[in-house]
Design a protein that fits this description.
Blueprint: H1 2-14, H2 18-22, H3 44-68, H4 74-79, H5 190-206, H6 210-223, H7 228-240, H8 244-257, H9 262-274, H10 278-287, H11 296-308, H12 312-325, H13 330-342, H14 346-359, H15 364-374
């Protein structure tokens, strides 16, 4: 029977044709033999044992992950969510390990101490079952990949100061100190402050507050004595309030600072003449004459004062200069004729009187005087 049984088994293995099988009676069949040892692991008991081991391993891993993960730094716990290298089929390669000590330590404010010992996670050895029929490999489900840590920005400003190293060896930079901003207002120059006082006085004078205007003009001159506009305005206020002596003092100070201000000289000379000091006026105008060569009014006023002092030759010269700058002024022509007549130059005087009458700008009384001199 054993020989027949072996022959039947060989026929089934070779998948013999129907002709070969017909040679054997139908009631003759091969006796079932013992199962191959390679298929014993597919028995229900073996599968249950494997599932129990896998559940135990999963529970142990879950317990370790829950209790140990909070003690790891934030960056390291993210890097641990990685599987060991796998082969083409997806199964872990035996012998490969992950060295925890080589993982970069993440920076944090107060990181817990991290052990320097290496934690080796090895792939479990798995016995390959021998079977004529290949079994599908069990591929573990990979854990989701952790997002990569963002690299430090290269454009962040460097901070020189740093706190001492902590127990974990992590150096934390000190917070950046914001730059100090100087909020002090820019200091004004003396000229700017003087102009401010001058503008304040002009506004007060326009509103009829003479005393306030005077105080503002005086303050401006104390700050900047060379502010000539403020000086001239102050003289006008002093003349209006009938303080000519104070006005003359202010003008004399201005001429000491700036002798070229011929306008100050004319104002001072008029005040002196009004007070009866003709000689003082002549001296004032004489000192500033070199700066008033192009001022016709200055020259004619100076010529009139010299005429009152009977200095006709000097008066004729100044009247001529003024009339060259502004021809046809009847008053100046009348004054020139009077000095020419006083100097014995009658023909020239008669011509000057005639031109004065023809100018048409003489007041009625001076027009009558010119007619009398011609007769």
């Amino acid at each position: 029977m054993s020989v027949i049984n072996q022959m039947l088994i060989d026929l089934e293995r070779r998948r013999a044709s129907g002709e070969e099988r017909n040679r054997i009676p139908d009631h003759v069949r091969a006796m079932p033999g013992p199962r191959s040892s390679g298929l014993d692991w597919l028995s229900p008991s073996w599968i249950g044992a494997v599932l129990a081991v896998l559940l135990l391993a999963a529970a142990t891993a879950a317990w370790w992950w829950r209790d140990m993960l909070p003690w790891l730094p934030a960056g390291l716990s993210q890097n641990l969510v990685k599987l060991p290298p796998a082969d083409e089929s997806g199964s872990p390669i035996p012998g490969m390990s992950f060295d925890l000590a080589q993982a970069p330590a993440a920076k944090s404010d107060d990181p817990p101490p991290v052990s320097t010992h290496s934690v080796i996670v090895k792939a479990p050895d798995r016995a390959e079952p021998r079977s004529d029929k290949p079994s599908p490999p069990v591929v573990p489900k990979p854990a989701p990949a952790a997002p990569p840590l963002a690299p430090a920005s290269s454009s962040a400003p460097a901070i020189a100061a740093a706190v001492p190293e902590t127990a974990t060896g992590i150096t934390r930079p000190a917070p950046a100190v914001p730059p100090q901003i100087d909020r002090r207002e820019r200091e004004q120059t003396p000229r700017q402050r003087a102009e401010f006082e001058f503008a304040r006085g002009a506004s007060a004078l326009h509103q009829g507050r003479a005393s306030e205007a005077r105080a503002a003009f005086e303050a401006a001159l104390q700050i900047d004595p060379a502010l000539h506009g403020a000086r001239q305005a102050l003289v006008g206020v002093l003349v209006d309030v009938r303080q000519p002596a104070e006005a003359m003092r202010v003008l004399q100070e201005g001429l000491q600072i700036a002798p070229s201000q011929s306008g100050f000289a004319m104002m001072l000379a008029r005040l002196q003449v009004e007070r009866g000091d003709i000689e003082g006026g002549v001296q004032t105008l004489g000192r500033s004459l070199e700066y008033a060569g192009g001022n016709a009014d200055y020259l004619a006023f100076f010529a009139g004062l010299l005429q009152r002092q009977q200095r006709h030759a000097d008066a004729i010269d100044l009247f001529d200069r003024a009339l060259r700058l502004r021809p046809g002024n009847g008053i100046w022509l009348l004054g020139l004729g009077m000095s020419l007549e006083a100097g014995g130059r009658d023909a020239e005087a008669r011509e000057a009187f005639r031109r004065a009458r023809a100018s048409g700008n003489l007041p009625p009384d001076l027009q009558t005087y010119a007619d009398q001199r011609l007769r």
